[in-house]
# Entry
Amino acid sequence: VSVPNAARSAAPSTRPRNLAWRDRLKRRLPTIGPYLQALPLAAVFFVFFAVPIALVVVVSFFGYETYRLLIPAFTLDNYREVFSEEVTYRTYVITIEFCAVTWVITVTLGFLIAYFLVFQLRSRTTQMVLLLVCSIPFWTSIVIRMIAWIPLLGRNGLVNRLLLGLGVVDAPQEWLLYSGFAVVLGYVHLYTLTMIVPIFNSMVRIDRSLIEAAVDAGAGTWQVMTNVVLPLSKTGIAIGSIFVIAMVMGDFVTVDVLGGGQVASVGKQIATQLSYLQFPPAAANAMVLLVAVVVMIALLMRAVDIRREL
Amino acid sequence: LRIRRPPIFWALAALLGVFIVFLYGPIATIVLLSFQGPEGGLVFPMNGLSLHWFVQLFRPQPIGDIWGSFDRSIGLGLIVMVCTVLFSFLAGLAFRRRFVGSTALLYLVVASLVMPSVVVSLGIGALFEMLGIERAWYSSALGAHLTWTLPFGVLIMFAVFNRFDPSYEESARDLGARGGQTVRHVVVPIILPSLVGVALFGFTLSYDEIARTSQSVGALNTLPLELEAMQTNATTPVIYALGALTTAVSLVVIGASLAAVLLVRRRRARFGSDAGQAA
# Structure
């Protein structure tokens, strides 16, 4: 998804002034056109996004009992519970670790692959076909893509057989599946594309003459990459990072399939509470998660001005 | 014309090659395993070659409601696709002009993209719980899916209309077309390939959605949720057969969308505008 430029959309049409009197009259009158056009979108996001998120805030202060899911109240008990339990800190440490490792791997892969596609390939067709090849899995099932790792990484899986056959190890490796390793592998598998695409978008916009100038000034490939391309792809890197961080911080599906109950992340903890219909503690937990994500995104936004890209 | 490639080209080409194998390898594995013989298990080696497990898919299963969830996922995907195309297109038209609250609305849409899905899911679940409305795939889950597909649709439309030359509409108007006619005969045909793209996002993202569906779907599951539930106690390659089948559905939809885009482009190249060629 390319990120559009808002400033241009508001550009006034350039019509001869004498022909445009009717338009000017129309513009004076309050137009309801755009409001009607935006109404379905606004309605969906009001009912299914703004209100639910506000409700999460409210519910996080509610009380609950086993057979009454939501008891209107104003209590800080849910938050007290979140912050007093040791498991909260443990899951946050694990989740942030996953986030950091996944980020380092995806940003490196994403940058190198985007760089290859944009600056090393000369044919535009090859470029687009390869980008498409990388994108197609994005439109297929996340669950299947995660389940697909099981016959590879399991105790009797292909990787273990290969390692045993080659004599690298002398017993099946248990840490390959249902482990932090498997979860991070799953994240890299799912989210590298969300890095590639925004970085690719930033890179195509880089003026080629800057690269030529750097080369003429004696820069080698490595120097061009680190001193010219890298700073100019900062926005793409930031957008990709925001996606990856948001996805990993809130994930519970990958942790469920590839962590197999051995791994607990924040998202998984919330999902577990929800499966017991404990809405208020889950909501308090979700609020803490949300604040954590917002803080991380805000730090990234400080590093680069993303609004310029929107 | 042969230009010598620097070593870094080959290093990065190899990296991309490995990445593509990494991307497609696992799914290829389970497709292969789904063709095992009747005695086959969940892992290699292959134990014969047959369509046994695909046939099993059509028999009553001890676990799960495969076809019910499949039908719901397809139905929901189609509804979400239509809503996503329609709402994003209309919003795209709206965002071309400035209106009160346009920035706020756009921020809301972008926020939905980066909002952890578990929070959205929880909020929608709580909303229906408080209102005392039964959660179902066609109500709460439909809304949850739209919060995920519409941001993609709106951002695509945003990009499209940024590049849209308004003089096409002006000439249509000068030739006497009304607003509706301009949209139908000028705007829609020009941006058709992008609308196909939005439809692709709408259907596939909904068809495969799981995180936002989990708390909003109610009693009857969609296919991804059914699959997640199945994988914890799957003992036969039936689950791989189902995985292969649902991947095939996605691939057919992706293929059809790409074919449609290419077709429109080719038609355009052949019958395209002859403006300026008369002289």
Chain B has a mean pLDDT of 88. Chain B touches chain A through 101 residues (CB under 8 Å). Chain B is about 70% helix and 0% strand. The longest helix of chain B spans residues 238-271.
